[in-house]
Amino acid sequence: MTRLLGRMILLAALTCASATACAQVTDRDPEIPVPAANPARPTVTNPATLPPVGYLQFEQGYLGSLHSPETDTQYGLNQVTKLAVHPRLMLAISSQPFAASKSYGDPTISHDPGGIQVGFQAVLFTPTLTPSTAKSPEGAPADAQKSPIPTIAVGYYHTVYGGTASDIDLGSATNSLILLFSGDVHGFHYDTNYLLNEQDGDSNLADRTIHRAQFAQTLSVNHSLFNPNLQLSVELYHFTQPLVAADATSHPISRAHLVDLLIAPSYQLRPNLVLDFGFSHGFTSTSTQWQSFAGFTYLLPHRLWPTRK
């Protein structure tokens, strides 16, 4: 318990220290507009593009689930902090500070922290733009995300603390390798990911851990609704479940997998603040039947280090 409390205090301290350092930077020209946030939430799919370089981005929200393989109900909080240190490299840390879970047939509610992951995302390819393309205040092409040729990136994440909260249908991964694509076709923006995860579980032998590979594919498509600031995302994702052997009714499953559909409106209140909410529905017997979520993405408006002249 002492070790867990220490890790949570360290995570909170790092977040507060970053925010304080960011607030102390005053070298930004007030006439230069605040860069726009680049949200990844609330979809499972992450964009291949990165947030503006030098700005901390926070993605926080609530997630509730009904009828998962391990839990009858669960609700909790999740948080991701991102920092692009180069136009092609981003560092990230994600956590689930709190989760309240209720198992099948058990009236008690368990309050536990989830895991903590750290990792990076590197852009491998960006579309070639014409010389006449407008430039953003940070020097990046303003229309880079609207190219029909996709941006391609790769990401890696490692779990530094597994947590004690029960998993829902996706499970938890010790290591994750992700291939990401983002582009635009006929006015629709799309993001798609291909994941290879390492999942750990208990074996039938004492003091032994089994390691299984999990494969996943995700596709998210979004388009504006009535107003450019109002976006609607529709996502379909598929994950194998190598450590799931039965559904919620204890019916054995030889090769478990999940297929979920997610629908999520979002609204850009300001360029650096995006609000979101939505729900998802699972189609297999080992999918979480319903999930609801709400949250926001906020890009702190001060750069951590001065812009190069």
In spatial order, strands of the major sheet run 1-2-3-5-6-7-8-9-10-11-12-13
**H/E order of the elements?**
HEEEEEEEEEEEEE
CATH topology (fold) name: Porin
Mean pLDDT: 85
**Beta-strand percentage?**
over 45%
Instruction: Profile the largest sheet.
Output: 12 strands, antiparallel, barrel
CATH superfamily: monomeric porin ompg
End-to-end distance, in Å?
A: 49 Å
Q: Find the structural class using helix and strand composition.
A: mainly beta
**Helix fraction by DSSP (H/I, runs of at least 4):** under 10%
Number of domains: 1
Q: Stretches where pLDDT falls below 50 for ≥5 residues?
A: 1-28, 130-144
Tertiary shape: globular
Q: How many beta strands in the DSSP annotation?
A: 13
What does it look like?
The protein is mainly beta. The chain has a single domain (42-295), classed as monomeric porin ompg (Porin). Helix content is 7%, strand content 50%. It has one helix at 2-23, and strands spanning 56-66, 73-86, 89-102, 110-112, 116-125, 151-161, 175-185, 188-202, 209-225, 227-240, 257-270, 273-282, 290-299. It has a twelve-stranded antiparallel barrel. A hairpin with a 6-residue loop joins strand 1 and strand 2. The radius of gyration is 20 Å and the shape is globular. The model is unreliable at 1-28 and 130-144 (pLDDT under 50).
